[in-house]
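[Meeting: bench + compute handoff]

Bench side (C.D.) handed over the final construct sequence. Compute side (W.E.) agreed to return the predicted structure before the next meeting so the bench team could plan truncations. Sequence as handed over:
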Amino acid sequence: MLRLVVILAAVPLLVVGCANTAANPVPRAGYAKIGQTVTVGGARVTPLTVVQDSRCPQDVQCVWPGVVTLSARVNRGSNSETREFVLRRPQRVVGGVLEMVDAQPARVSDRTIRPGDYRFGFRFRT
């Protein structure tokens, strides 16, 4: 019984520990808002639209963290692709691997995030 209590007490700490804040963005990531272009690792990434944001709000305890899905255009040299990216799920694109590593701001249960308020962090490697 004591083990169960300890495990249940640790779960909220693990969930909170996974969140990034605007004051603590992901190191070595390039950030862009919807419609802005950022260059990361030789690729130019332009977030186009938020397809889905089902992340658990900061002020709520959830059993599932949710996901952020973003449509973005990626250019590298003469190659250009538009794809949907899911937070922390790297995928091959334009001769490398692109990962959306952060999505800001965090969701809060009593507030809707406007498209212009989002910032997305990306990493690209060849």
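W.E. noted at the follow-up: The chain has one domain: 2-125. C.D. will use this when planning the next construct.
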